TrEMBL record:
Its cofactor is Mn(2+). GO terms for molecular function: metal ion binding; phosphatase activity. This is DUF89 family protein. GO terms for biological process: DNA damage response. The keyword Metal-binding applies. Residues 60-361 form the Damage-control phosphatase ARMT1-like metal-binding domain. Keywords: Hydrolase, Manganese, Metal-binding. Pfam families: ARMT1-like_dom (PF01937). Belongs to the damage-control phosphatase family. Sugar phosphate phosphatase III subfamily. PANTHER family: DAMAGE-CONTROL PHOSPHATASE ARMT1 (PTHR12260:SF6). It comes from Glycomyces albidus.
Length: 391
């Protein structure tokens, strides 16, 4: 018998982070969209109506269009008439973005806005920004580093790249994006699994575009060099949360790397393109990555892929919430207890940007709570946590 899980994190508690996402972040997000695109009146009105509904309304009896419609029909049917503020945070946030895509007619094949990524301007701005310039300069400088230092730097760049999450920055434009400190560091266990003998793939489940996917591609390149099997990079099938990475974002990133003044960066792009052409690097996606559920309800085909992998590396806060469940865990709950349901070996690279926490040493937790009570929300604490899978 499975142990009873904690209750889900909701969006109804005044002063909570999850509530602020709806009452502070989403209004700024909608303003940004209306500023980035010359949307016609009916799309602007649909966005404003969605925002108002999400603050004071209930779930209407209509399934948002687009792919994975059967899953969404079942999910929405079970919640028709429920007030938004009574919804679980993970579900409500996913539903908001699905409805946002409907409002901007992303999946409307008879609309000129079909396929126009509403977050593209924000993603592309990162590819031309000074922070990415500094990242690429640092990457090029690794040519002179020892193998151990290079490996460590590439892993940490992928981890801290998650600070560049555009959703996080929507209402935190001045957030501290200097590298913080690790609350848990099981990086050696990650490498032991990723570099173990065998031809099974290492799967990297990406989170965000821009600076983060750039760092993730450097990690993928390293894995292609050191792992003994292929590498799969799993992406979203379409835009989801603000900066979630799609295939289009990977292509845009490679194009940007091709133009870099550093030969080492251009060589990185060339190696990655060659790896895709040769089948060593496989770009994949799955509808489950845009479902409003956690990884306890994985579709059987994706669960089988995860089970067959040498290691699955889950990037970012959203993947972490899906892995352990967006639940009111005691932060000292062992990571293995929260993630033990996963069908195979899994590593989480997560920068903390929501209330959720597990696997924190009790003494460290007491110190963190005393010195910085909001440590879970600032993006300056992170974890590298590993569960080796079932015996």
């Amino acid at each position: 018998m499975r142990p009873e899980l904690p209750p889900p994190i909701g969006i109804d508690l005044p002063g909570s982070f999850s509530r602020s996402v709806f009452h502070e972040r989403h209004p700024v997000l909608v303003d940004n969209l209306l500023g980035d695109f010359p949307y016609p009146p009916h799309i602007a009105e649909a966005l404003e109506a969605l925002l108002a509904e999400s603050l004071t309304g209930t779930v209407p009896p209509r399934t948002p269009g687009g792919p994975e419609i059967h899953t969404w029909h079942l999910e929405v049917s079970a919640r028709i008439g429920q007030p938004w503020e009574s919804l679980p945070f993970l579900w409500a946030e996913s539903y908001f973005y699905r409805r946002l895509l409907r409002a901007v007619e992303y999946h409307h094949y008879d609309s000129p806005w079909c396929g126009v990524d509403p977050f593209a301007p924000q993603k592309h701005a990162q590819l031309d920004g000074p922070e990415l310039r500094a990242d690429l300069d640092a990457y090029a400088a690794l040519s002179d580093a020892s193998a151990a230092d290079r490996r460590r730097a590439i892993l940490l760049a992928s981890l801290w790249g998650n600070q560049a999450d555009l959703g996080f920055r929507t209402n935190n434009p001045g957030a501290d994006t200097s590298v913080g400190d690790l609350v848990a560091d099981e990086s050696e266990a990650l490498w032991d699994l990723a570099e173990a003998p065998g031809e099974a793939p290492v799967i990297v489940v990406a989170d965000n575009a821009g600076r983060e996917i750039t760092a993730d591609l450097a990690l993928v390149d390293h894995l292609l060099e050191t792992a003994t099997g292929p590498v799969e990079l799993h992406l979203k099938p379409h835009p989801y949360f603000v900066s979630d990475a799609t295939g289009q974002d990977v292509v845009a990133t490679l194009n940007a790397l091709d133009r870099d003044p550093h030969a080492a960066v251009r060589d990185l792009a060339r190696r990655l393109r060659d790896a895709v052409r040769m089948g060593w690097l496989r770009l994949r996606t799955h509808g489950a990555y845009v479902h409003p559920t956690d990884y306890r309800t994985l579709p059987s085909d994706l669960a089988e892929e995860f089970a067959a992998a040498k290691l699955v590396i889950l990037k970012g806060d959203l993947n972490y919430r899906r892995l352990v469940g967006d639940l009111q865990w005691d932060p000292t709950t062992p990571f293995a207890e929260a993630a033990g349901h996963f069908p195979g070996p899994v590593a989480a690279l997560r920068t903390a940007k929501s209330d959720l926490a597990v696997g924190v040493d009790p003494a460290r937790l007491a110190k963190l709570d005393a010195e910085a009570p909001d440590w879970r929300l600032t993006g300056t604490k992170a974890v590298i946590q590993v569960h080796p899978g079932h015996d």
